[in-house]
Every structure is written in C-alpha cells, then in structure tokens.
Amino acid sequence: xxxxxxxxxxxxxxxxxxxxxxxxxxxxxxxxxxxxxxxxxxxxxxxxxxxxxxxxxxxxxxxxxxxxxxxxxxxxxxxxxxxxxxxxxxxxxxxxxxxxxxxxxxxxxxxxxxxxxxxxxxxxxxxxxxxxxxxxxxxxxxxxxxxxxxxxxxxxxxxxxxxxxxxxxxxxxxxxxxxxxxxxxxxxxxxxxxxxxxxxxxxxxxxxxxxxxxxxxxxxxxxxxxxxxxxxxxxxx
Length: 237
Hints:
α2 runs antiparallel to α3, α2 runs parallel beside α5 and α3 packs antiparallel against α7. It contains ten helices and no strands. It is globular. The chain is mainly alpha-helical.
C-alpha cells in the first residue's frame, strides 16, 4: 500500500512539471473561462445561473480527453511498461496513478472556476455545494475513464489527437453549455446525449442530481472500466 501511495505522489510531482497537463487542465480552460464568461453573461444575462457548470464541462472535457491520453501513450506505448513488468509492478499502477493525479488537477481547476465566477461575472453559485461537488466528482471520473480508454486503445499519437478531438468537440458543442440543447435539430440533440458532457452538465445543475441524469454516467463508467481492464490484460500478456 505504501508503494501505491508513493506511486501516486510521484505521478503528482511529474504532472506538476508537465507542460501538457498545465496547458490542458489549467491554462486553456481558465483562459476560455475568462474570455467566454464575460461574453456569455453579456449576450445572455440569464446564463449567470449556469455559467459555472458550463465552464466546468469545458474544463473537464479538455483535461480528460486531450490531457490524459497522451500521458498514457508515453507509459503503455513505450518501454516504460516493460520496466513495470521487469520489476514486478502491477500493469494497472500507471493508469491508476495518472487517473488519480488528473482527477485532483481537474478538481483544483474547477474549484478555481467556482471561486472566480461569482466575483468576475456575478455567476450564481450552486444552491447545494456538497451535492454539486459530488456531481462534479462523478462527472470527472466518467470523463477520465473515457480518456483512459482512448489512451490505452490508440497507440499512435496522431490518431489519438484526431480521435480525442472527435470526442472533445461534440462534447462541447452538443452538450447544451453554449446554447440550450433543445435549439439543436433533433438528430444533433440525440447525438449529444451519447456524450457524458450533456449528462454531467444536467447532473451539476441545481436539483439535477437524480437517477434520471445519473444512470447513463454510471453505465459509461463501468463500461469504460471493463474495456480498460481488457486492454491492460492484453498489455500484460
């Protein structure tokens, strides 16, 4: 157990020094928040009640789909995985430590948004902060599980970048954070429900934490965990 915590602490230190993680979990999401927060609340004043949730969906999606998978390729697509095997380190350790480290970084980034949005843009804080952060934690876990699956499944960096964008962009455009999802054509609105972003967004809204918005996220999480387990088993063999 001490070895596990040492691995998590080591991964945390490595991620702090990572420019890629700094950009995808902090720099780009926070710049987007600072720029678009003012635009959204000026054009649509009513969006102050959902600004925090909207900006968090963007931040989590970028960190999970674009930030995490390349780190997994560096480990499981290189000789580092062979070092794991040679030293008897469980093959899943790298994935778990990166997952936990990315989770903490995304929670910090989202907490910054929650703190700054009311001060800068008069955004409305969630009515029940404990429930909101529970919903946020669930959404981050589900998004990171999908990012983990991408990082383990795709070994080519160029293909991974393209695939990650194909997941990231619809998550942002079709989730309802830019404009109400019911304004989209029926086909696009249905397509948006495939991505966890739309479910996570509704889950984080006031009075949105219910089984109706939760069941799909749970289903996606366990499906992604199952796929990751299969991929890791193949990696080990």
